[in-house]
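Suppose you are handed only these lines of text.
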Amino acid sequence: MSDKTHQQNLVRAQNAVREKESIAQMGRYRQQYHFMASTGWINDPNGLIYWRGQYHLFYQYNPYEAVWGAMHWGHAVSNDLIHWEHLPIALAPSEPYDDHPSGGCFSGSAVDDGDRLVLLYTAATESAQGSVQTQCLASSSDGITFEKYENNPVIRELPPDSSPDFRDPKVLRYKDFWYLIVGSSLGKGAREGGDGCAQMYKSADLKRWEYCGVIAKSNGTLGTMWECPDLFWLGDKWVLMFSPMFYGERKTIYLIGDMDFENALFSWEYEGEIDCGFDYYAPQSFLDDKGRRILIAWANSWDWMPWWKDFGRTAGEGWCGHFAVPREMRLTEDKGLQFMPISELESLRTGHEEYPAFILEAEERKEIYAGDGIHCELVLTIDVAASTAEQMFLDVRQGKDERVRITLSFKDREVLFERMDSNGQADILKRQVFPDFGSDSLTLHLYLDTCCVELFALDYKLSFSGNIYFSEKSNYLFLESKCGNTKFNCIHTYGLTMG
Ligand code: FRU
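From them, the structure of the protein bound to beta-D-fructofuranose can be written out as follows.
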């Protein structure tokens, strides 16, 4: 009976997609090679898994409108993490525990339990007391059609001291058991100043879960609620990653340390920021068939689209949201994390331009070229030791009064990311001071698409993601050296096309 409602709601949602997708396809801000839904709203990536020879990507989805609303799980598959085929929507709100206009099937993860692809997600509904969040299971034998488990929710009670902010299960296998890590806020809720934390459950069959405890918490220093926690083994360490609410400008955090499963305790020695830009949130990782730990994130942030204002520039085109390019994560010798754009992206390159070593003189402004200046990639290597400048600017998507400026401040050992739009509204600056700026050479690696810029710097330990909604005439690229010269070892640029 209840599965019938689910299947009906899926058909209704799919029909809405079919009706509206041709309109969204015409949108002028549609990306070329970043993942988007064909129409409607998306936020967090969910259920990332390499299953039976293909990559599966699920995502928080409102198929009806380009604004956040009752959450479905969209679904796509790929052979290379870049070219995606959209599949039928996997989950729709349908049951008393997940059928609410301001709830639905919230974020979660996927695992292979042998013969079925199993999804664990947060079911969100409302009661007179407020939000009710429980953890639920759905599964599929073909990886396309999903049934919700008849005894859902599989975790229905809040653990001790937990606020109703209790969501985003990430399931991992360790030794002989399944472990589920879920994000919460201890004591008070996220908006009342609780303590962000990650809690752990244990199970032998993915259906009966035993509560183990709080594995890590904020103690007033790391945000009030940890959304989308993810615990995984990398190199020779355990990494706990999450998206904290109310942690100032910091949106995505990783902690590197050790995990004691017996005592349900994660201890950490290092804290870092995954992306320092404006638009990077709710990343989820998975281990692929090549042994790589891949990370995919929603390239947006709640801060820029509060629902009482607007949902961003593309909502008027019938769609909103894309994912940042997939990154491979590596642990460095000094126990930091590196985030490298996956090598599959190289298959999109066209029109290679190479600029051999040259010196940009003080106050010189030089134009460079990369594809059409909008869908392109740039790799610049700068000889820091041989440069006398105080600053070097790289201006991309430069137009009459729009641009993204990346500043290398040799003087202050900083990398700055600044976007300026023609309304003068988004003239915001972000910076990151790096003590080990690099005394020899330093590489800046950039990906540009219709409405975003992603920058990787400092040996891929630093990244900035930012969305921009510029005129297509803003497609110039310039280099400028301030108060001294800048030596470039080489510059490679490429156009990028899906072909
Ligand atoms: C993160 C998040 C999750 C939640 C989902 C709802 O962006 O708030 O915590 O599950 O989005 O769409």
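What can we learn from it? The chain has two domains: 3-338, 347-496. The pocket of beta-D-fructofuranose is lined by residues 43-44, 60, 71, 106-107, 122, 167-168, 227-228, 281-282 (CB under 6 Å).
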